[in-house]
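Open question from group meeting: does this chain pack into something compact, or does most of it stay loose? Before anyone orders reagents, we agreed to write out a predicted structure and look at it together. Recording both the input and the output here so the notebook holds the full record.
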Amino acid sequence: MSVGMAAPRAPYACDPDRSRGRLFPEPPSRTRSPFRRDCDRVIHSTAFRRLKHKTQVFVFHEGDHYRTRLTHSLEVAQIARALARQLGLDEDLTETLALAHDLGHPPFGHAGERALDACLDAHGGFDHNAQTLRVITALEHRYPEFDGLNLTWESLEGIVKHNGPLIDRSGQPIGGYSDRGVPVGIADYTSKYDLELWSFASLEAQVAAIADDIAYDAHDIDDGLRAGLFRIDDLKVMPLAAEMIAEIDRHYPGLEDARRGAELVRELISYLINAVFTQAQKNIAALQPQSAEDVRNQNHALIAFPSGVAEEEASIKTFLYQHMYRHPRVMRVMGDAERVLFDLFSRYQTMPGDLPPEWLDGAERDSAAERARRIGNFIAGMTDRFAMTEHQRLFDSTPDLR
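Structure tokens returned:
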């Protein structure tokens, strides 16, 4: 099948007609599948709108053309849908997971996550996947009969497990959770609604996860070039990029750097999508899964880069880490951003009356851990702009973050 043609629904795809349902039963929609309904609920959520003013790498006022969490999520969804279409997966579920995967991120990108993790260290720390689960199961208040969005089981498991199982079959935390354990928010929720943390998630979730990597690689190169943190010819230290740039220069001699960079980003996205699609076909053909349950019971992910491409993709991340995420300009701004959140958390701890009234409902009964988590939830929901406004309201001096 050529890339671009939609495949018929595969037997290993998640079937909306066979969904495990919702924690709070609801009548079915007359016009939408359960997964389409999930996607629409994510799009209409308050948390999704806030992504417009949450940092990806560059703070909101550094320029109108840099990615935000919202534009990143849209790009992930576009890539994920392209892969899902080729593999015969459910596009609505795939889109839901792509659009929802960053709902739990705090302001100021990974700097904000580091700051909140340190602030909450004595109370289980901060994990953005666990925070996303809190957002969609508790913190959104839009429906009369339940908190959260009441998404299907398949959407919830995909959000929590898109990077793989969190525990082994004996219940021991694995991978990135082996040291600190399963995050509190996930452990608490799965005690009442089992998301089977020991199994892999659906192929739709695996596609959304790898689409996140592809989008990061491509658009961070694009934003880094735009910001002048490196030049397109600096990318030639990576053989894959060097080959693509040479091909671009052969086809378009004398092309200005801005267009060379845009063409490179397009070529890179296409290359990585094709590599994933080809490898997925091989993995699926070898294992012949006949249902979504067969996928969940595998001992490894079926959606992955081929080994050689995985090395090329890792080299892109290494380049970006060295030349972008650790660039002195970015490090300075993110260091100031961390201090903003440290200040806010400390202030709300010592003066909880500074929280909005709606965030104080029931606070008088909070334990120390519950109060800290309440403050963490409030700060995690902030946009960059609101965090700065709050800091300016509560403190005499606020960093400029430029």
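Observations to bring back to the group:
The CA atoms of residues 127 and 157 lie 16 Å apart.
The mean pLDDT is 94.
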